[in-house]
């Protein structure tokens, strides 16, 4: 159950960062994996 909660939290955080943080969209497109290299 805990991994599911973590994944949901990460996805929600990505949405928030995309909306609120200037330049995050550019970073998001440039950096393919942000959590675990080659996985996520």
Walk me through what this model shows.
The chain is mostly helical. It is about 65% helix and about 0% strand. The chain contains 2 helices and no strands. About 0% of the residues are buried. The model has no long low-confidence stretch (mean pLDDT about 85).
Which helices and strands appear, and what pairs or packs with what?
Elements (H helix, E strand, L loop, with lengths): L1 H19 L3 H7 L10
Query: Count of helical segments?
Result: 2
Q: Biggest sheet, in brief? A: none
- Per DSSP, what share of the residues sits in E-state strands of 2 or more residues? under 5%
Range of helix content: 55-70%
Strand count: 0
Give average pLDDT, whole number: 86
Radius of gyration: 11 Å
Order of helices and strands: HH
How many domain units? 1
Which consecutive residue ranges, at least 5 long each, have pLDDT under 50?
none
Features:
40 residues; mainly alpha; 65% helix; 0% strand
Tell me briefly what this model is.
The protein has 40 residues and is mainly α. Helices cover 65% and strands 0% of the residues.
């Amino acid at each position: 159950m805990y991994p599911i909660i973590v994944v949901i939290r990460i996805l929600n955080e990505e949405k928030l960062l995309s909306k609120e943080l200037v330049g995050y969209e550019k970073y998001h497109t440039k950096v393919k994996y942000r959590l675990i290299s080659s996985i996520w």
